[in-house]
Design a protein that fits this description.
CATH topology of the largest domain: Rossmann fold
Largest sheet: 6 strands, mixed
Cofactor: pyridoxal 5'-phosphate
Oligomer: single chain
Active site: 43
Strand order of the largest sheet: 1-2-10-7-8-9
InterPro entries: ACCD_DCysDesulf (IPR027278), TrpB-like_PALP (IPR001926), TrpB-like_PALP_sf (IPR036052)
Number of strands: 10
Modified residues (N6-(pyridoxal phosphate)lysine): 22
Family: Belongs to the ACC deaminase/D-cysteine desulfhydrase family.
Strand content: 15-25%
Low-confidence stretches: 262-282
Length: 282
């Protein structure tokens, strides 16, 4: 596990843990013959579901926000190559995808036996998968940090923490106060209780999902990290360390969920941790 070295950290130590959380979220969601999920046109969650369907012999359906555009972009083309059936919902209907009315229409079309996985993959089963992450960390630590898009990864990490450790999430959305309620809901659905060992910082969204600023752009270029999720978390950690938010000697594990891939301008709305493999070297 590589350590992030920067003078601003002082006596705070930050260790970088590469972890593609998409397989974790899917691990306990794959016991169905047919799986339907949602995402934007560049959703790596949709891609991950398609790949899992191919590996495990599961029929998969990807419900994509907006209208069809041909030729398919590389993400959707890959999903189709994996055997996924792609369909589309107009944006008004997509905003109502969580309602029973829309779900009933989808089941009528795709079969009563279809399992519906939410956008980003965050549900009780996903939380149980993400809860396995803390036990795999090979270094001593006080805090685990992660970006937060839908809340599932943070909910799971918190549930899997040893006594005395805490989890710190960095919201990548503007106006994300609702995420605390989402984490609580997910923990209740997965375990019937809520942990108090986590918090979400709302101050480093840089204007909102897939938004950036010149300051964040310079940070991304310096550290060569994925910009929608990872850069905001790492910038937040360094800034908080600079401000003295962590006691000297605090050891932080930062979960690196993605690498530079899809240009920010091509991303339309959060679909969970939609990113690829980690990169963090200067």
């Amino acid at each position: 596990m590589e350590e992030l070295l920067d003078p601003v950290l002082g006596q705070v130590r930050v260790f970088l843990m590469p972890d593609d959380n998409k397989p974790r979220k899917l691990k306990y969601n794959l016991g169905h013959p047919r799986l339907l999920t949602f995402g934007g046109a560049y959703s790596n969650h949709v891609r991950a579901v398609a790949e899992a369907g191919r590996r495990h012999g599961i029929d998969t359906i990807g419900v994509i926000r907006g209208e069809e555009h041909l030729p398919l972009n590389p993400v959707l083309a890959h999903a189709v190559a994996c055997g996924m059936t792609i369909t589309y919902l107009d944006r008004a209907s997509y905003r109502l995808k969580h309602t029973e009315e829309v779900r009933a229409r989808l089941r009528e079309r795709w079969g009563r036996d279809v399992a519906i996985l939410p956008e980003g993959g965050s549900n009780a089963a996903a939380v149980r998968g993400c809860a396995e992450l803390p036990a795999e960390i090979p270094v001593d630590y006080d805090v685990i940090a992660c970006p937060v898009g839908t809340g599932g990864t943070l909910a799971g990490i918190s549930a899997g923490l040893p006594e005395g450790r805490r989890a710190l999430g960095f919201a990548v959305l503007k106006g994300a106060g609702f995420l605390a309620g989402e984490v609580e809901r997910l923990q209740r659905e997965a375990y019937g209780r809520v942990w108090s060992n986590w918090s979400i910082n709302l101050d480093y969204h840089f204007g909102g999902y897939a938004r950036s600023t010149p300051t964040l752009d310079r940070f991304i270029a310096k550290f060569r990290v994925e910009g929608i999720y990872v850069a905001k978390m790492l910038y937040g950690l360094l800034d908080l360390a600079r401000r003295g938010a962590f006691a000297p000697g605090t050891r932080i594990v930062a979960v690196i969920t993605g690498q530079p891939s899809t240009p920010v301008a091509e991303c339309g709305a959060p679909t969970g941790f939609d990113s690829g493999e980690p990169r963090w070297r200067r």
